[in-house]
Amino acid sequence: xxxxxxxxxxxxxxxxxxxxxxxxxxxxxxxxxxxxxxxxxxxxxxxxxxxxxxxxxxxxxxxxxxxxxxxxxxxxxxxxxxxxxxxxxxxxxxxxxxxxxxxxxxxxxxxxxxxxxxxxxxxxxxxxxxxxxxxxxxxxxxxxxxxxxxxxxxxxxxxxxxxxxxxxxxxxxxxxxxxxxxxxxxxxxxxxxxxxxxxxxxxxxxxxxxxxxxxxxxxxxxxxxxxxxxxxxxxxxxxxxxxxxxxxxxxxxxxxxxxxxxxxxxxxxxxxxxxxxxxxxxxxxxxxxxxxxxxxxxxxxxxxxxxxxxxxxxxxxxxxxxxxxxxxxxxxxxxxxxxxxxxxxxxxxxxxxxxxxxxxxxxxxxxxxxxxxxxxxxxxxxxxxxxxxxxxxxxxxxxxxxxxxxxxxxxxxxxxxxxxxxxxxxxxxxx
Length: 431
Ligand SMILES: Cc1cc2nc3c(=O)[nH]c(=O)nc-3n(C[C@H](O)[C@H](O)[C@H](O)COP(=O)(O)OP(=O)(O)OC[C@H]3O[C@@H](n4cnc5c(N)ncnc54)[C@H](O)[C@@H]3O)c2cc1C
Fold this sequence. Notes:
Layout: E1 2-8, H1 12-23, E2 28-32, H2 64-70, H3 75-79, H4 81-97, E3 102-103, E4 110-113, E5 119-122, E6 125-126, E7 131-133, E8 142-148, H5 156-165, E9 169-175, H6 181-184, H7 192-199, H8 205-215, E10 221-225, H9 234-243, E11 247-250, H10 257-272, E12 276-279, E13 283-289, E14 292-298, E15 307-313, E16 324-325, E17 330-331, E18 339-340, E19 363-364, E20 373-374, E21 377-378, E22 382-384, H11 400-417, E23 419-420, E24 428-429
Parallel strand pairs: 1-2, 1-15, 2-12, 8-9, 8-10, 10-11, 15-22
Antiparallel strand pairs: 3-6, 4-5, 4-7, 13-14, 16-17, 18-19, 20-21, 23-24
Bound molecules: flavin-adenine dinucleotide.
């Protein structure tokens, strides 16, 4: 099987690079072991919320030169300030064109309301998630936070108390919907996605709307756990019309309905342009000659190799097995690529769990075109994108989705144009 590009991994990075390549007419396959971190995410996408020295970033594009000074190995520093700015707008377009309805822009962060009612700075948020613009008060003076009786992955009381501390009149309520009793009997099944399957049924709408309308009297807006509208937002739109108040969704503990919806829309977009996804398959062998990848072997295809002119490694970090750790070493399992990582185990973590953890910055090391190194040599037709890259801390710096999207578009552009994109934007011919 021969493709122009094979992408290993179908997280945000794999899908974004695949969409860009397929849209440009490249034959493209994604091999995907399983669910990506989107299934566990808040649904909001971070670009850059904090510099490594801890200072807050409100306008990400203005902070890039300071980021380069503080973190020269950060993927944004590798890509270069000007290029990051143009890729940010490309990423926003890709998100929009894929049908994700998000608020926000890379020119200015905003705050999203978290599952415990606090505020966290971010770049793009699903339009259904309550947000606050910088230096502006909340849009609502009063909010009712409504949980679902027996659903432990969302606690309206905690959210309401946190909102009250931020000056919002908030009350916590619960709805009891008898048609959920079947799930309620088994706590391991009483999870967001299973609940959504029942709430999304047309016959459930009036019942839910009646309960919510009763509890929402005297409040301006309704906050619900994201357990409704799995396939489409139309269900929430219909609810909002019946309730006659704005209805917002807060992320719950995983699985994340907001993240799953994003994953589905990105998959659809990739397939729309003719992309092939090998779901449930795993790349488990790589054939190389003279620093070139000549074939990829997968669990389902046995000894039939996938051949490609270019390969993108988008396998994620430890969470997705893109990196692995043994007692005394951290390694990249497919090609044993060179890593940005501490060799001594004592340096991997800090005892205080509330401080940034060094292992979160571990990842593959690359040249300035995001081509990984193996034993100090560039693998010529391989690029790395997303959380497998080293040099940044997605949690502390609040830059996870941004790095995944921008690195994906950066490598896709080089493959499409056949030219290396340099920081000064003077193209070199790709080898
Ligand atoms: C639990 C969690 C929650 C997060 N929440 C947020 C958030 O709310 N906002 C935010 O901005 N960032 C968040 N992040 C940061 C996140 O890393 C990025 O936002 C981004 O989604 C990562 O995408 P990725 O494609 O690089 O990697 P991943 O999403 O990890 O995807 C990697 C994919 O590669 C596949 N894979 C791995 N090895 C192989 C193989 N050998 N063969 C085939 N497939 C393979 C995996 O199965 C997986 O599907 C979160 C991270 C985690 C771990």
